[in-house]
Amino acid sequence: QTQFYRDTWVEINLDDLKHNVTSIKKHLPQDVHMFAVVKANAYGHGDIQVAKTALENGAHGLAVAFLDEALALRRNGIDAPILVLGATRPENVKLACENKISLTVFYYDWLKEARKFLNVDDLLNLHVKCDTGMGRIGVREVEDLKMIEEYINTQSNFVFEGLFTHFATADELDESYYRKQLKTFLELKNSLEIPPKYIHSANSAATLRFAESHFNSVRVGISMYGLSPSIEIKDRLPFELKQVFSLHSRLSLVKKLSEGEKVSYGATYETSQEEWIGTIPIGYADGWLRKLQGQEILVNNKRAPIIGRICMDQCMVKLSEEIPLGEKVTLIGSQGEGFISMDEVAKRLDTINYEIPCIISNRVPRIYIQNEKPIEVSNKLLVSSDFL
Ligand SMILES: Cc1ncc(COP(=O)(O)O)c(CNc2conc2O)c1O
Fold it and tell me: Which of 136, 225, 281, 308 is surrounded by the most beta carbons within 10 Å?
């Protein structure tokens, strides 16, 4: 059982994760597959643990950003279908074959290059990505798609396993651009001789809002973690989402300062009267960024503001009264009646909820909670690394 030696940690509630996955599955028709998007260490939640819980509760497969993330899942005993959503080097396709990892192709010449690295009996499962308006990666014209389809279907190394696209605005109230993308995707899909096994377009927002975008598979990330794809659709979701990720620490010092005393770098904070000040062992190197100065956290079930500049490893909080040393504080998540949402922290950082769990760094261990009990600790600082 890996331990951790600083009183700062993330709690991942696997019961809430299960609630979200089963709610999404119930929302989908029986025959629509759910791919759990576990890229970026499952948006900072822990890729292996999230993958296992999602698969145990009805996910059909997994989606990641690049080959390394897929290999990490395979090396941890995950043998469900895995799709790499981003670009892969042609010279690495054999690794994908050997590990039964599906890759994304989005231009013709990649196929000709990739073939050079495959033996005659290698089989590579490919999903063709269409750019219908995201403007990132993907085929944009029917003739380009037809060229790719023709090449895949004539090369024994390649299996045309999937066709997909990605929406840029499915989380917005104005549906016009989404509808334009869906129409373009249908034109591309209908131009194919034979449709591939997986046809998918929906991210969380489209999965929750637009049944016509489900086709036979969906790719769900943010809502699986219990977060709304955007603020504007937050109060229009078809079922309750439970925030899986919470961030906690403990007071490492509590002191009473008299009026006119300074706190932290730059001596920018000055007590306006006699004040109780707590110190917490978390800082910007943990992803608790300096711009979070002033953000309230929960101490003894009450909101308390971070005061003074946030340091690399520590920050200070203004307490409403003397609090015992070692008291648990909650920076994100619930404590008693209080709740600090991912959206509240994101707002203070002028960003979106997706980014927050991603930037809480590997310095902060992840504790997995199931049936209200901690069942696993993942501390990335205490795992060995490969030396070249
Ligand atoms: C191709 C693709 N499919 C599905 C998802 C899941 O979307 P969801 O988390 O909204 O359900 C993403 C998320 N990609 C990103 C999420 O934030 N920035 C991104 O590039 C994606 O890039």
Answer: 225
DSSP β-bridge partners for residue 305: 296
Nearest atom of ligand 1 to the alpha carbon of 166: 1
Helix (H, G, I), strand (E, B) or coil at 40: helix
Here the ipTM equals 0.99
Q: Whose CA is nearest to atom 8 of ligand 1?
A: 221
Task: Write out the DSSP string of 347-368.
Answer: HHTTS-TTHHHHHS-TTS-EEE
> Taking the alpha carbons of 131, 137, 139, 140 in that order, is the dihedral positive or negative?
positive
Tell me which residue of 229, 204, 197, 230 sits closest to 218, measured CA to CA.
Answer: 204
206 Cα to the center of ligand 1, angstroms = 11
- What is the set of active-site residues? 39, 265
Alpha helices, DSSP H only, in 28-107? Answer: 39-44, 47-56, 67-75, 93-98
DSSP symbols for 239-304: S-----EEEEEE-SEEEEE-TT-EESGGG-EE-SSSEEEEEES--GGGT--GGGTT-EEEETTEEE
DSSP state of 141: S
Q: How far is the CA of 229 from the centre of ligand 1 (A)?
A: 10
Q: Which atom of ligand 1 is nearest to the CA of 170?
A: 10
Q: Whose CA is nearest to atom 16 of ligand 1?
A: 354
Q: How far is the CA of 28 from the centre of ligand 1 (A)?
A: 18
Q: Tell me the CA–centroid distance for residue 2 and ligand 1, in Å.
A: 31
- Count of beta carbons in the 10 Å neighbourhood of residue 382: 12
State the closest ligand 1 atom to the C-alpha of 220, by its place in the atom list counted from 1. 11
DSSP 327: -
**Ligand 1 atom with least separation from CA of 129:** 1
What residue ranges line ligand 1, CB within 6 angstroms?
Answer: 37, 85, 166, 203-204, 219-222, 229, 354
> Structure tokens of 159?
């299996």
Mean pLDDT split into 10-residue runs, the chain, 388 residues: 90 98 98 98 98 98 98 98 98 98 98 98 98 98 98 97 98 98 98 97 98 98 98 98 98 98 98 98 98 98 97 98 98 97 98 98 98 96 81
Whole-number Cα distances in Å, 305 to 183, 249, 279, 292, 331? 48, 15, 12, 10, 10
Distance CA 267, CA 275 (A): 16
